[in-house]
Amino acid sequence: MLTAACSNPNAAGPFNSPGGKIYLSQCAGCHGAQAQGGVGPPFDAAGHAHHHSDAELAQTTTEGIARPGQPATMPAWRDRLTPQQLSQVIEFMKLLWTPEQRAQQQALNPQ
Ligand code: HEC
Q: Which of 17, 27, 28, 67 is the most buried (most CB within 10 A)?
């Protein structure tokens, strides 16, 4: 029933995309249920993820970030996401950005 889907604001949108589902199950615990940030930085339009190219976002996600002495570190997802899942989760982040941020980030990627 289409009316049911339309009356539920959560039925569609970024968090219901393939990458959004991966995000909710694997990343939201640290980056926030709305990607607003937590122990990890935000991925929404208020964050700065759009200052990184796709390759940089993928690299950080696969390799992780270890900072000795910090309360939380970014785990390495190398063995836990397929290449397809990795690009899906990056595409999900882009759905949270403004059109200007998407254009700005797109310009960082090799054409
Ligand atoms: C255990 C907590 C935790 C989980 C789970 C986690 N992260 Fe992180 N993430 C962090 C922390 C903490 C940082 C900041 C590291 C730093 O810069 O010191 C970070 C940073 C990042 C960055 C760099 C962001 C930027 O703007 O520089 C990316 C990209 C990222 N995470 C992606 C992901 C993705 C994708 C997932 C899910 C597959 C994920 N993270 C799951 C804790 C986590």
A: 27
